[in-house]
Amino acid sequence: MAKPIIVSGMQPTGKIHLGNYLGALNNWLSIQKSDKYESIFFIADYHSITENYSAEEKRQQVFDLACTYLAIGLNTEKSIIFVQSAVPECTELTWIFNTLTPIAELQRMTQFKDKSERQEKNINMGLFDYPVLQAADILLYDGSLVPVGEDQIQHVELTRDAARWFNNKYKANYFPEAKPLLTSCPRLMSLLEPAKKMSKSLGEKHCLNIDEEPEEIAKKLAKAVTTPEGVANLKLIYDTFKEQMTGDFDENKMGETKKIIAEGLAKHFADFRKRKKELLSQPEEVAKILEAGRARASVIAQKRIVEIKKIIGVI
Questions:
Q1: What positions carry a catalytic annotation?
Q2: What is the pLDDT of residues 263-301, one digit of tens each?
Q3: Distance of alpha carbon 212 from alpha carbon 186, whole angstroms
Q4: CA–CA distance from 173 to each of 117, 134, 177, 305 (Å)?
Q5: HEC string of the chain?
Q6: Minimal CA–CA distance to 238: which of 263, 216, 272, 207?
Q7: How far apart are CA 298 and CA 296, in angstroms?
Q8: pLDDT tens-digit series, residues 81-109
Q9: What predicted TM-score, i.e. pTM, was given to this entire model?
């Protein structure tokens, strides 16, 4: 019996912080270690261009995220790793799904509303159509499981709908109705505004990035607020990485406790930082790895897009 295929990706929009790591990368590593699944992990660069950016900045972000994937432990022998835009069949399938997707379904998407509020001067069609491209990303590779947190279930539901709309219209049992693979992870909050989720959109000082040097981690944690919410957030970070902590969490000695957390985090990501620095100095090697992943993904995508076009009658 064929193993279920898991498909997931991250946007190259800047440094990866602890929340991103726990919400995605750490779960991907667990999936990769399991013999239960076939895994496909991509860099979602097409998704990321819906926001304001410069071309040179985007190139660097894609390269940086590729280095992060590899340095954290994603293994090209066990998983397919590639850049989304290098396999253009995803945009072909997006257009096909667009012809089936009711506008009303996209209008109710909460992420479109959230992103529109963050970039009021750039509310583009890509933001609106984001979930359809996401559905194409998953179903192009016959993905049947999508690792997500509860806040992403709405998009997986639309992916299921897209599969159902296609199958019903063309009387074809072709696409699987993908299911969410719910991943429980700590919900880390901003260091400076612990009522808000840790996010790059709040600014660098609000986040702990996993490739930061120990000195920068300590500096950021020293400035973390110690309101009741702030202390609870620091305790969550402490508990999540408890194996690396060399002292107790003491609410009455937060200065000392912050140093313990900083040292523990620096230790946890030490090997990652070393490996990432090596990869950043080897752009040609990273490019070869991504090209090999693109080739593997393209074999699947090209075969399936031909099958899909035959089903809908354009071949």
A1: 115, 197, 200
A2: 999 999 999 999 999 999 999 999 999 999 999 999 999
A3: 20
A4: 39, 20, 10, 15
A5: CCCCEEEEEECCCCCCEHHHHHHHHHHHHHHHHCCCCEEEEEECHHHHCCCCCCHHHHHHHHHHHHHHHHHHCCCCCCEEEEEHHHCCHHHHHHHHHHCCCCHHHHHCCHHHHHHHHHCCCCCCHHHHHHHHHHHHHHHCCCCCEEEECHHHHHHHHHHHHHHHHHHHHCCCCCCCCCEEEECCCCCCECCCCCCCECCHHHCHHHCCECCCCHHHHHHHHHCCCCCHHHHHHHHHHHHHCHHHCCCCCCCCCHHHHHHHHHHHHHHHCHHHHHHHHHHHCCHHHHHHHHHHHHHHHHHHHHHHHHHHHHHHCCC
A6: 263
A7: 5
A8: 999 999 999 999 999 999 999 999 998 88
A9: 0.93
CB 32 within 8 A of CB 72: no
Residue 138 has pLDDT above 90, yes or no: yes
